[in-house]
Amino acid sequence: VLGLVAAVHGGVEYMEHTRGQVGQGRALFVPLKLCVLIHRALGGAYIGHLDIMRYFQKALRRADINVSLSEGFSPHMLMSFALPLPLGMSSTGEYFDVDVKDAPSSSEMISRLNEQMCDNIKVLSVIKIPEDKANKCMSLVTGADYSVTLADGSAFDEGIFRDGIKRFLAQENIMAVKKTKRNESLENIKPLIYSL
């Protein structure tokens, strides 16, 4: 189970979008950048990231949310997940951001979206990302909590486990391979571990 901790969580509920005037009396819509918190139960853990993206694109359309589209020959919804989950993981809190041209209140948007959700996925909150913050949820996420559950009948000795955790954290450096699209590099992840 994964729960993300974001700096935007608990932000103020928005009520309406703003727009400015441009040109000869035409209105220029200033899109709202919204951060959506969702819960994905175990039944939704085996849905791949791209399928989850398509799922929410359809849900936003069915909920009649006026989402901003990219420009160009093949417009697509402006949305992205903060930390896409690996296949097989459920979550108690996942964030994605979406640009909308206008929107109802937070509570109405949550209600509309949840009417389109299956039993395993629910929208928990919708907040506006403050204008003085970075413009994506990905840059606002400050940490993640992981819970690991052992299968019934698994051999487990709590003393050995706790001793292993102490030895692991006692290391001066904890090196891990960081993979990007271009290369791989070794990185010390010890400063990134808040607690274990």
Structural class: alpha+beta
Mean pLDDT: 80
- List the uncertain runs: 1-29
The number of E-state strands comes to 11
Question: N- to C-terminal separation?
Answer: 15 Å
Q: Which range best describes the helical content: under 10%, 10-25%, 25-40%, 40-55%, 55-70% or over 70%?
A: 10-25%
Order of helices and strands: EEEEHEEEHEHEHEE
Report the portion of residues in β strands. 25-35%
Query: Taking Cα atoms only, what radius of gyration do you get, to the nearest Å?
Result: 20 Å
User: How can the largest sheet be summarized?
Assistant: 7 strands, mixed
Count of helical stretches: 4
Query: What characteristic shape results from the CA principal axes?
Result: globular
In short:
The protein is 21% helix and 32% strand. It has helices at 49-62, 106-116, 137-140, 158-169; strands at residues 2-6, 19-22, 26-29, 32-40, 66-67, 79-81, 91-102, 121-128, 141-146, 175-179, 184-188. The longest helix has 14 residues, at 49-62.
Description:
This protein is of the alpha+beta class. Helices cover 21% and strands 32% of the residues. The chain is built from 4 helices and 11 strands; from the N terminus they run E-E-E-E-H-E-E-E-H-E-H-E-H-E-E. Strands 1, 4, 5, 6, 7, 8 and 9 form a 7-stranded mixed sheet that branches. The protein has a two-stranded antiparallel sheet with strand order 2-3. A two-stranded antiparallel sheet has the order 10-11. A hairpin with a 3-residue loop joins strand 2 and strand 3. The longest helix is centred in the N-terminal third of the chain and has 14 residues, at 49-62. 18% of the residues are buried.
